[in-house]
Design goal:
single chain, 16 helices, mainly alpha
């Protein structure tokens, strides 16, 4: 029994989920063993470790996107899209043959998908639609953050010019705008802060009436102060009399525009907006929604999470790239998820047209990845036995996965079938090992005679294994 909750939620019998654990374990050991052997052959034993970790996180994200609760769906969003995008970046950035690295990335991704049972069309379609929705919300959060930063910069410039102004008329106009902004912020925050809900039931009617009165006064105060400030700007532009000749006006304006007055005003407005935002967010997260609304809210929360990860996790790591070419950085941030959507869409189409079997998509993807990795290993000039073993491993993974899936469909997950799976696995691995040894010997004979090619011997391995499978029945 594996530790922790399972992602595919199997039933007792007749469950066409992931293959049985022993068969899938044989497939996983085959993929990981070949990856380690390839790492030693290229002189970097752990160069695929990061690929495996990120592939597992992305696959777990796809599995959690199918859950019903809001928290699990949000975590699925935060794992799927960033994990899949990071996996693509690692494949591109890892030195070596792209077929070799990309093939093992597919193999690890297929193995993880088989364990989590997320290689069917429903899971892929859900991940694609929800991922696109969270990506759109992420863009909305990004543009909103840009607008907030611009507004904050303008507010800072207004406050700075108000405090540092030598002309009392200019300072007074700036103070009116600051006061109006603070009153407007408090008025807006009252729409989100649950003042009435936090009041005892017996006093809610009185508090609701009083709160409505306060809202009206705040709205009127904000409109009056901003309006007076705008009118003052018009009068100042027409060279109307300034405040300097008025006795005592300079001292009063200087006191009102000091940091001891402007600072608390801004702090009150900022704290009110933050409290309202936190209250609205908490209310949205803790409410119960139907399935569609849950996915929408989860996508919106995940979009904000993407922005936080981008600002505090990605940007500090790529400051040099951001300074060198900010457009290149933004293009990577925007285009990497689109590449993920294209890849998931292509996988969904492949499943829909039966290019990959619907329920055996994980083992099939892992086997296809090993075949691609074998092509990359051959192009890099790695030892021929390793190339043959990679191709043989692809068919072992496929055979073990399909056999384990057959047991799952017929018996479910609870009956004990370990001995049967081990027997089948040992027999399959034995056929693969015999094929690899035979192809290696034949390759050695042909190369000593001045001929032969790894791809030709790879075809011989495939033919041998297929023949063995047919003989086995």
């Amino acid at each position: 029994m594996p530790f922790g909750p399972r992602l595919d939620r199997p039933s007792a019998v007749g469950d066409e989920g992931r293959p049985r654990a022993t068969s899938l374990g044989i497939a996983a050991v085959t993929v990981v063993g070949l990856a380690l052997a390839t790492g030693f052959a290229v002189g970097q034993p752990t160069f695929l470790t990061g690929l495996g970790l990120v592939a597992g996180l992305a696959t777990a994200g796809v599995a959690l996107l199918d859950r019903d609760t809001l928290g699990e769906t949000v975590v699925g969003h935060l794992l799927f899209l960033p994990g899949a995008a990071l996996l693509g970046v690692l494949v591109v950035a890892t030195p070596g043959d792209p077929y070799l690295v990309g093939g093992y990335a597919l193999a690890l991704l297929g193995t993880a998908a088989a364990w989590a049972d997320v290689a069917d069309d429903d899971a892929l379609e859900g991940a694609l639609s929800q991922g696109i929705l969270s990506y759109v919300f992420g863009l909305v959060w990004l543009f909103g953050a840009a607008i907030a930063v611009a507004a904050g910069y303008l507010a800072w410039r207004l406050v700075d010019s108000t405090v540092a102004a030598e002309d009392p008329t200019v300072a007074a106009i700036g103070f009116l705008f600051v006061l109006g902004a603070a009153l407007g912020a408090v008025r807006l925050s009252l729409e989100g802060i649950p003042v009435v809900q936090l009041t005892p039931r017996g006093r809610r009617d009185a508090v609701r009436t009083r709160l409505g009165r306060v809202r009206r006064w705040l709205a009127v105060g904000a409109a009056v102060t901003v309006g007076v400030g705008l009118l003052s700007l018009v009068f100042t532009a027409t060279d109307s009399p300034a405040l300097a000749p008025v006795p005592g006006a300079t001292a009063v304006v200087s006191a009102l525009t000091s940091a001891f007055v402007v600072g608390p005003l801004l702090a009150v407005g900022a704290v009110a907006l933050l409290a309202a935002g936190a209250a609205v967010a908490a209310r949205q997260v803790t409410q119960r929604y139907d399935e569609r609304k849950t996915r929408t809210v989860a996508a919106g929360v995940a979009g904000g999470g993407y922005l936080v990860v981008l600002l505090f996790g990605v940007v500090p790591q790529v400051v040099g790239l951001l300074a060198f070419s900010p457009f290149l950085f933004l293009a990577g941030v925007l285009l990497a998820p689109l590449a993920v959507f294209l890849a998931v869409g292509a996988a969904l189409v492949a499943v829909r047209v039966d290019l990959f079997p619907e329920r055996v998509g994980g083992p099939a993807l892992a086997a296809a990845g090993l075949v691609v990795a074998a092509v990359g290993a051959d192009s890099m000039g790695l030892p021929a036995p390793l190339v043959f073993a990679t191709v043989a491993g692809a068919l072992v993974v496929w055979d073990a996965g399909s056999f384990g899936l057959g047991l799952t469909a017929e018996l479910g997950h609870r009956p004990e079938t370990r001995r049967l799976e081990l027997y089948h696995g040992v027999f399959t691995v034995g056929i693969g090992a015999a094929a690899v040894l035979g192809a290696t010997a034949l390759y050695a004979v042909r190369t000593s005679a001045g001929g032969g090619h790894t791809l030709a011997m790879t075809a011989a391995v495939v033919g041998t294994l297929l023949l063995g499978a047919l003989l086995r029945g």
